């Protein structure tokens, strides 16, 4: 993928575009050949408008004024992208931003589009909309390379499938005849990894209780763009609430027992980030009590909470989980600098830390040539395995797992799920926040839906379907979600928020 | 694993070497372009360094620079740009000189008092910038630069004879009076001159710097904050406290910068106390990559250029050639380090990829996880 986009040079082999052999020295060459890439992490300037973002770097094509605007609208209309050129990017939701990225690439004259895990951040309804867009592009004669580890989606949208594992092509498949199972077997070389947790390990002992947790947006730092800007695109309600910046978390109450995985479903930007930060101690709650293992930790700083047994798999590992330019063993110390084996009486114990890093690398199958390489040189999956290994190494009582398998390959995904499951069996309480609904339903013992900072619905993962969950995430359903009912009793809303979860 | 270490060492040396070579080449070009013999001045400078008295001057100057550069480096390690070392150092030297003159204590205690006052003054002055940054988000670059100017005015006012200043008879210099001999630090006498005793303290401080940064929890937190503030915060570092602490430490070390001179030679603060040491410290910290050994050699190099270029005047060349050389080093350092850094990251990523493809990963055994 990087080679195709000119970011890296191949050692061997050839690339042919339109039957003509080409070689790319940099992304510019690739763009000139009509290859465009939509990255997994959006590369947009939040404080510029859509129009400005699109012309940025491509000023020579159609200028920056009326001509550019006309061209943008032309492309937008031709492929049904529904772009509003004067909207600020920070006001757009994830799906809208993705469409801007696609438009950016088309604006530069791309005929071949590479989409890297485009659905990772979308809810099912948005995924369908994206697929409609892709079909439009296809109909216009464009080529789309769709990279995803969600097999169902690949089967749904692709005309041809190539499976790559550890850098080599392991097979091709025809989406009309192939099944997810066959594809998965090709991908991992064995059976389909499933997030399914087999037996329930939930105990009656409460590990973490959160009561009436409320967090208001501070006016000066209201609506941090990374978190609050990511609201659902089609839903004006959510955007309004973000702009108004009232309550980011509104009377959130739940209990997680020993051995229980509580899953939180929700469209990004509905308070998940704030919930994590409040639980970690990175932002102080305005009201509410957090109790961990019988101890009130509401007022404790981050470090005390971590020492007290909170493990943290952050949603953005590059921002919150790793020092990218530091070595693996230094990253192993990060977050646990005061704990053994990393330090003794204020002095680091490098030897022990290094030894333990090697253990993590071995036990969690982090693929690396050594522990002195920088974290940045590992693939996302291996970085994540290192983080999981690190957090698990301190015997946490309570683990916050935010999108633990986002952008992670299938093999690593299964290993991470295994690690969470194992720890759960040993009495770990887990708060799982994920945009991958299959993961949520498969791993969780209890499901809650967060919407505009409130826990509005709960569901039984044994019976719920992703579609029903998706509906609740947009705020259309509240209360206890019954799988066999098409319609959900909305009257139970108040109960759903306040009742303590019984162990199921 | 050994191979990566060797690579890293090579890359670490490549940066400064590349910078120095290109700075020298550029200097030669500048000299040639201005119609001066490009090689002769450089030869004279190297000859100068052969004299014992110049060598002593270089070492003394290097000690002063070393302290200033350490102060800057502490900030750099956590992405704080303490541009105010200059003001912190001068104010600290001035206040500690005043205190040192006013009191009379037995030898070591007297020196200790002066040193502590200097550190406290430096820390206080830097702490203002730290507090502004932590509480109000004021960029420390702006506030420290402004504090430099304020320090200059404050010193000019404090040193007036009606305040703390003394005007020696028959001179228009102003001083803070003489510190009694119990407040002096003895020098090491060599044939070429005296090496200030505090110079050795300065270099010893390099070891303390290394230990604190690389071997303590506090140092790890500080470095983590510098590498990624968001990750450090999630790891449990209180960012505001860290800004404040590192600014205070940086200021305290900056306060020490004037000590070799004050305790070893002048024994008073006067109008001819050197200006701009703090800014040279920035160059040296950059060139030395915030590494105590690197800073040591950079301090020696810059001190050499300083002292050796002074002799150019007598040989018919402008001594500003040294300044040009220093300036070019700064530019070359910034450019070459970034180049080397990018190259290093790319190379490592490639290597890791290659090693993994070749199946050289550390022995993995995921059975243990699944079990």
Automatic annotation (TrEMBL), chain A:
<dbReference type="InterPro" id="IPR017871">
    <property type="entry name" value="ABC_transporter-like_CS"/>
</dbReference>
<keyword id="KW-0547">Nucleotide-binding</keyword>
<feature type="domain" description="ABC transporter">
    <location>
        <begin position="1"/>
        <end position="191"/>
    </location>
</feature>
<dbReference type="InterPro" id="IPR050107">
    <property type="entry name" value="ABC_carbohydrate_import_ATPase"/>
</dbReference>
<keyword id="KW-0067">ATP-binding</keyword>
<dbReference type="InterPro" id="IPR003439">
    <property type="entry name" value="ABC_transporter-like_ATP-bd"/>
</dbReference>
<dbReference type="GO" id="GO:0005524">
    <property type="term" value="F:ATP binding"/>
</dbReference>
<dbReference type="Pfam" id="PF00005">
    <property type="entry name" value="ABC_tran"/>
</dbReference>
<keyword id="KW-0813">Transport</keyword>
<dbReference type="InterPro" id="IPR027417">
    <property type="entry name" value="P-loop_NTPase"/>
</dbReference>
<protein>
    <submittedName>
        <fullName>Sugar ABC transporter ATP-binding protein</fullName>
    </submittedName>
</protein>
<feature type="region of interest" description="Disordered">
    <location>
        <begin position="478"/>
        <end position="504"/>
    </location>
</feature>
<feature type="domain" description="ABC transporter">
    <location>
        <begin position="231"/>
        <end position="477"/>
    </location>
</feature>
<keyword id="KW-0677">Repeat</keyword>
TrEMBL record, chain B:
<keyword id="KW-1003">Cell membrane</keyword>
<keyword id="KW-1133">Transmembrane helix</keyword>
<feature type="transmembrane region" description="Helical">
    <location>
        <begin position="141"/>
        <end position="160"/>
    </location>
</feature>
<feature type="transmembrane region" description="Helical">
    <location>
        <begin position="88"/>
        <end position="105"/>
    </location>
</feature>
<feature type="transmembrane region" description="Helical">
    <location>
        <begin position="269"/>
        <end position="287"/>
    </location>
</feature>
<feature type="transmembrane region" description="Helical">
    <location>
        <begin position="294"/>
        <end position="312"/>
    </location>
</feature>
<keyword id="KW-0812">Transmembrane</keyword>
<dbReference type="InterPro" id="IPR001851">
    <property type="entry name" value="ABC_transp_permease"/>
</dbReference>
<keyword id="KW-0472">Membrane</keyword>
<protein>
    <submittedName>
        <fullName>ABC transporter permease</fullName>
    </submittedName>
</protein>
<feature type="transmembrane region" description="Helical">
    <location>
        <begin position="111"/>
        <end position="132"/>
    </location>
</feature>
<feature type="transmembrane region" description="Helical">
    <location>
        <begin position="243"/>
        <end position="263"/>
    </location>
</feature>
<feature type="transmembrane region" description="Helical">
    <location>
        <begin position="324"/>
        <end position="340"/>
    </location>
</feature>
<dbReference type="Pfam" id="PF02653">
    <property type="entry name" value="BPD_transp_2"/>
</dbReference>
<feature type="transmembrane region" description="Helical">
    <location>
        <begin position="195"/>
        <end position="213"/>
    </location>
</feature>
<feature type="transmembrane region" description="Helical">
    <location>
        <begin position="56"/>
        <end position="76"/>
    </location>
</feature>
């Amino acid at each position: 993928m990087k080679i195709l986009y000119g970011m890296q040079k191949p050692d061997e082999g050839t690339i042919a575009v339109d039957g003509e052999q080409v070689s790319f020295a940099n992304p510019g060459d690739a763009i000139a050949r009509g290859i465009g890439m939509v990255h997994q992490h959006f590369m947009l300037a939040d404080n510029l408008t859509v129009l400005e973002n699109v012309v940025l770097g491509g000023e020579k094509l159609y200028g920056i004024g009326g001509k550019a605007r006309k061209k943008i609208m032309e492309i937008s209309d031709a492929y049904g992208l529904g772009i509003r050129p004067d909207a600020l990017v920070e006001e757009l939701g994830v799906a809208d931003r993705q469409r801007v990225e696609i438009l950016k690439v088309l604006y530069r004259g791309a005929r071949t589009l590479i989409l890297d895990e485009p659905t990772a951040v979308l809810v099912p309804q948005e995924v369908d909309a994206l697929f409609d867009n892709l079909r439009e592009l296809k109909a216009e004669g464009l080529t789309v390379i769709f990279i995803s580890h969600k097999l169902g989606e690949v089967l749904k949208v692709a005309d041809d499938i190539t499976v790559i594992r550890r850098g080599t092509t392991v097979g091709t498949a025809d989406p009309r005849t192939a099944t997810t199972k066959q594809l998965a077997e090709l991908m991992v070389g064995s059976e389909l990894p499933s997030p399914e947790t087999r037996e329930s390990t939930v105990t009656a002992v409460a590990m973490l209780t959160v009561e009436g947790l409320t967090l208001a947006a501070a006016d000066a730092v209201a609506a941090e763009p990374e978190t609050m800007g990511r609201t659902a695109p089609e839903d004006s309600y959510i955007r309004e609430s973000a702009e108004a910046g009232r309550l980011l978390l509104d009377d959130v109450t739940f209990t997680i027992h020993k051995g229980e995985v509580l899953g939180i479903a929700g469209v990004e930007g509905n308070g998940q980030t704030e919930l994590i930060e409040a639980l970690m101690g990175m932002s102080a709650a305005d009201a509410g009590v957090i109790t961990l293992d019988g101890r009130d930790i509401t007022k404790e700083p981050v470090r005390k909470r971590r020492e007290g047994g909170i493990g943290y798999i952050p949603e953005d590992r590059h921002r919150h989980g790793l020092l990218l330019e530091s070595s693996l063993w230094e990253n192993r110390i990060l977050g646990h600098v005061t704990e053994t084996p990393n330090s003794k009486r204020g002095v680091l114990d490098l030897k022990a830390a290094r030894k333990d890093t090697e253990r993590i690398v071995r036990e969690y199958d982090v693929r690396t040539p050594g522990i002195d390489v920088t974290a940045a040189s590992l693939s996302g999956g291996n970085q994540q395995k290192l983080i999981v290994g690190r957090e698990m190494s301190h015997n946490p009582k309570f683990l916050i797992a935010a999108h633990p398998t986002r952008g992670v390959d299938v093999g690593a995904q299964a290993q991470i799920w295994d690690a969470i499951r194992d720890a759960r069996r040993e009495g770990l309480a887990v708060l799982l926040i994920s945009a991958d609904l299959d993961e949520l339903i498969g791993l969780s013992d209890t499901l809650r839906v967060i919407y505009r900072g409130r826990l509005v619905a709960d569901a039984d993962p044994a019976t719920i379907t992703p579609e029903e969950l998706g509906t609740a995430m947009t705020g259309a359903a509240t209360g206890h979600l019954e799988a066999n009912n098409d319609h959900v009793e909305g009257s139970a809303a108040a109960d759903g928020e306040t009742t303590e979860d019984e162990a199921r | 694993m050994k191979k990566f270490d060797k690579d890293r060492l090579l890359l670490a040396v490549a940066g400064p070497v590349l910078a120095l070579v290109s700075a020298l080449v550029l200097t030669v070009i500048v000299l040639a372009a201005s119609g001066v013999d490009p090689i002769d001045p450089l030869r004279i400078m190297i000859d100068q360094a052969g004299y014992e008295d110049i060598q002593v001057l270089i070492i003394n100057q290097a000690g002063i620079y070393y302290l200033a550069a350490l102060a800057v480096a502490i900030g750099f390690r956590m992405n704080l740009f303490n541009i105010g070392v200059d003001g912190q150092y001068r104010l600290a030297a001035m206040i500690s000189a005043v205190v040192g003159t006013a009191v009379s204590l037995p030898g070591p205690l007297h020196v200790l008092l002066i040193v502590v006052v200097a550190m406290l003054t430096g820390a206080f002055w830097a702490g203002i910038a730290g507090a502004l940054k932590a509480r109000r988000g004021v960029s420390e670059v702006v506030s420290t630069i402004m504090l430099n100017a304020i320090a200059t005015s404050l010193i000019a006012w404090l040193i007036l004879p009606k305040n703390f200043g003394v005007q020696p008879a028959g001179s228009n210099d102003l001083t803070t009076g003489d510190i009694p001999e119990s407040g002096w630090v003895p020098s090491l006498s060599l044939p070429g001159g005296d090496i200030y005793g505090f110079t050795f303290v300065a270099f010893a401080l390099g070891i303390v710097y290394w230990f604190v940064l690389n071997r303590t929890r506090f140092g790890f937190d500080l470095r983590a904050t510098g590498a990624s503030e968001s990750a450090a915060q999630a790891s449990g570092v209180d960012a505001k406290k860290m800004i404040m602490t590192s600014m205070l430490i940086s200021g305290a070390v900056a306060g020490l910068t004037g000590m070799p001179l004050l305790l070893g030679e002048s024994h008073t603060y006067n109008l001819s106390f050197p200006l701009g040491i703090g800014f040279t410290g920035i160059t040296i910290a950059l060139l030395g990559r915030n590494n105590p050994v690197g800073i040591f050699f950079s301090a020696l190099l810059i001190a050499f250029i300083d002292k050796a270029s002074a002799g150019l005047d007598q040989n018919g060349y402008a001594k500003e050639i040294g300044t040009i050389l220093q300036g070019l080093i700064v530019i070359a350092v910034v450019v070459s380090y970034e180049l080397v850094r990018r190259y290093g990251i790319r190379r490592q990523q490639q290597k890791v990829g290659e090693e993994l493809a070749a199946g050289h990963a550390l022995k993995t055994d995921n059975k243990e996880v699944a079990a």
